[in-house]
Specification:
Family: Belongs to the short-chain dehydrogenases/reductases (SDR) family.
CATH superfamily: NAD(P)-binding Rossmann-like Domain
CATH architecture: 3-Layer(aba) Sandwich
Bound molecules: NADP nicotinamide-adenine-dinucleotide phosphate
Structural class: alpha/beta
Number of strands: 9
Organism: uncultured Solirubrobacterales bacterium
Keywords: Oxidoreductase
Number of domains: 1
GO molecular function: oxidoreductase activity
Number of helices: 9
Protein name: Ketoreductase domain-containing protein
């Protein structure tokens, strides 16, 4: 089993655990008896979830209110975890956001900050914890990419590029870690019900056929099952497997104009 077994001082660090997929991944891990360290900016939400997980599963659930988007915030998070005497044996880099619109119309600072959160924070935390896991010869890393990363997406240009980075980085990391006892898995969800669409100014996914939109619970279950078996990548749902295939292999000259029309954002 790729997820190290429960131990009193062992924890699963989950970023972006205050809503959506991150909260559900924390629930899946707690259901399997693992202690969790929940990280996001909305500390009140994290506390509610921590109480729920301790009550329901008897696990230790820690809360650290922090932004992982900047180097100092991550350094504080890492030292806070150390000072609590915890060893991160499972790392879930889930915090992320998107945006919608033609790149030239979007807030440039917000696009830049998205790269820092979606890419830099994830590499930063892998950089802190992967070597420690390798020294212990055990550990599991789950990075949340997206099917958006399998092709360029007009009107989500930065977001799709950040997720292409996450998908590529994690697949390579999986191979770099081969034989060390540590695994890296990339989760590539398609459209999923959470706060993501609203937070990114994408409205809702209501315009999509309902069979194309998954629940955060289903996505999290697939993710943690993939993590347990040390998979390189997890693409939940047959529709998303197909769209990932199409995104990778369809000629860009056909795909890009079609996607530009498909995404009904400003
Ligand atoms: N929903 C989808 O359709 C979909 C599809 C593919 C991939 N994904 C990916 O799945 C991941 C989770 O998204 P979601 O759908 O669950 O969206 P969500 O409900 O909006 O959750 C995003 C989480 O990230 C946290 N976050 C945002 N900025 C942060 C920061 N600077 N520091 C720490 N935490 C931060 C948020 O918490 P606070 O605001 O409290 O900090 C929240 O817990 C993201 O990486 C997203 O790109 C989503």
């Amino acid at each position: 089993m790729a997820i190290p077994p429960p131990a009193p001082d062992s924890t699963c660090l989950v970023t972006g655990a205050s809503s959506g997929i991150g909260a559900e991944i924390a629930r899946e891990l707690a259901r399997r008896g693992r202690g969790v360290t929940l990280v996001a900016r909305r500390e009140d939400r994290l506390r509610q979830l921590a109480d729920e997980l301790t009550r329901a599963h008897g696990v230790r659930a820690e809360v650290v209110g922090a932004s992982v988007a900047d180097h100092d915030g991550r350094a504080e998070l890492v030292s806070e975890i150390e000072s609590r005497g915890l060893t991160v044996e499972t790392l879930v880099n889930n915090a992320g956001y998107g945006s919608g619109g033609r790149f030239q119309d979007l807030d440039a600072d917000n696009e830049e900050a998205m790269v820092r959160l979606n890419c830099e924070a994830l590499v930063g935390l892998c950089g802190v914890y992967a070597p420690k896991m390798v020294n212990r010869a055990r550990g599991a890393i789950l990075n949340v990419g997206s099917t958006a990363g399998f092709q360029p997406l007009p009107r989500q240009a930065t977001y799709a590029a950040t997720k292409a980075f996450v998908n590529s980085f994690t697949e390579a990391l999986h191979t770099d870690l081969a034989g060390t006892g540590v695994t890296a898995t990339v989760l590539c969800p398609g459209p999923t019900r959470s706060e993501f669409a609203e937070a990114g100014g994408l409205g809702t996914f209501d315009q999509l056929p309902s069979f194309l939109v998954d629940s955060a619970e289903n996505v999290a279950r697939a993710a943690v099952e993939g993590l347990e078996s040390g998979k390189r990548s997890v693409i939940p749902g047959a529709g998303n497997v197909l769209s990932a295939f199409g995104g990778r292999f369809a000629p860009r000259s056909v795909l890009l104009p079609a996607l530009g029309r498909f995404y009904p954002v400003k």
